[in-house]
Design a protein that fits this description.
The protein is an alpha/beta fold. The protein contains ten helices and eleven strands. The protein has one domain: Rossmann fold (3-Layer(aba) Sandwich), CATH 3.40.50. It binds adenosine-5'-diphosphate. Heterotetramer of 2 NUBP1 and 2 NUBP2 chains.
Length: about 270
């Protein structure tokens, strides 16, 4: 079978990006997009680093809202689509920018969806980047196989997997880890989101989910993948996400912003 010529084009498009990181989650709603956005904000707080975020969660693109650029329109330059700049050194591209209204659900399926994902990987004019974080749909579907295949010549650094601490989420993370191992995709590490509750009044931390036998860190150890750390369940995280604000900039001393800072240093 002839190799897909777009795979080489995608590699060419991303050849000016030093680090390319896929963000996965076993389930929806565990905070994958929020984590991706805040890792982006956290990485770009170093003004020497150029950071991009590519949202290919085609059916549920929430990135424009989380990053406060909801009503922007994408323009094309001679080199492809120009991403939207959230800060001088932080840009983002999302299918959300192609919808006429944020309420429009995207119901692209199968080949059409893959075609769009391919376009997003191949046609964005990122310029020189230090980091590109790629927010993928939840789960391990055929779409993920396509994404990994499309990126097979682009030199992906690896995947970061986001989970919550409950056992039901962990079951899916195990699947996610095995999926990466099967595809020889390196796992940069697991991030445990919404681990404990931080009281908005007194900042006291409480455990709210029943602890699982091993915990996320224990599971990571057992499966021999790095555990990058935990982010508390913090109303400030939701508040920033809903208002399109950067958590690390708005509440830099909050426990969750500090957690992001520590994790960013390991990514
Ligand atoms: P996913 O991308 O996995 O579907 P989202 O990033 O959209 O999940 O997050 C789902 C909801 O959870 C959002 O309303 C978000 O603000 C909230 N959320 C995510 N992480 C946290 C956290 N650490 N503390 C509080 N709320 C959070």
């Amino acid at each position: 079978k002839e190799p897909d010529p777009d795979i080489a084009k995608i590699a060419e498009c991303l050849s000016h990006v030093k680090h390319k990181i896929l963000v996965f989650s076993g389930k929806g709603g565990v905070g994958k997009s929020t984590v991706t956005a805040n890792l982006g904000f956290s990485l770009s707080s170093n003004p020497e680093q150029e950071v991009g975020i590519l949202d290919i969660d085609i059916c549920g693109p929430s990135m424009p809202r989380i990053m406060g650029v909801m009503n922007e329109q994408v323009h094309s330059s001679g080199y492809g689509w120009s991403p939207i700049y959230v800060e001088d050194n932080l840009s983002i591209m999302s299918p959300g920018f192609l919808l006429s209204s944020p309420k429009d659900a995207v119901i692209w399926r199968g080949a059409k969806k893959n075609g769009l994902i391919k376009q997003f990987l191949r046609d964005v004019d990122w310029g020189e980047l230090d980091y590109l974080l790629i927010d993928t749909p939840p789960g391990t579907s055929d779409e993920h196989l396509s994404i990994v295949n499309f990126l097979s010549k682009a030199g992906i650094d690896g995947a970061v997997i986001v989970t919550t601490p409950q056992e039901v989420a962990l079951l899916d993370v195990r699947k996610e880890i095995n999926f990466c191992k099967k595809l020889n995709l390196p796992i940069i590490g697991i991030i445990e989101n919404m681990s404990k509750l931080v009281c908005p009044k007194c900042q006291h931390t409480s455990i709210i989910f029943p602890p699982t036998a091993k915990g996320v860190d224990g599971m990571a150890r057992e499966m021999q993948v790095p555990y990058l750390g935990d982010i508390p369940l913090d109303p400030l995280v939701g508040k920033c996400g809903d208002n399109g604000k950067s958590l690390p900039h708005t509440f830099p001393t909050s426990p969750s912003a500090i957690a992001y800072k520590n994790i960013t240093e390991k990514v």
